[in-house]
Amino acid sequence: MASSTTRPARRSAPATPCASFRLPNCCIDMRINLKFFASVREQLGTSVESLDVPAGVATVGALRALLVARGGAWAEALGEGRALRMACNQQMCDAGAPLLDGAEVAFFPPVTGG
Fold first, then answer.
1. 3-state DSSP helix/strand/coil percent for the chain, to nearest 5?
2. What angle do CA 27, 31, 37 make, to 5 degrees?
3. Could you tell me which CATH class the domain 26-108 is placed in?
4. Of 43, 29, 31, the residue nearest 79 (C-alpha)
5. 4 vs 84, more confident
6. What are the φ and ψ backbone dihedral angles of 72, each rounded to 5 degrees?
7. 76, 51 in Cβ contact below 8 A?
8. Cα dihedral sign for 19, 22, 27, 29?
């Protein structure tokens, strides 16, 4: 008598690579919402974006690196040498803050006031 075994479900690879992120054969792990403010918004030409984040991008810092890898205005506006503030779900954070599905991540320059 043959026994029946059940295999756990596996995440299948997408049909096409994530070429826009230069990460071949990646899997989409979560969807987040991006917001850009002030000079960052002006440089990028957009204030919001909904983004499917590939597996392996688990922190705000890794997300920033992913966006910088787009090159051009993205690298200039979000590059590591640039003074930049970040928030995740409307809380100021550093590069080590974890990302969760549905998160809102904002990038903006430091501001001064009087």
1. 25, 30, 50
2. 130
3. alpha beta
4. 43
5. 84
6. 55, -135
7. no
8. negative
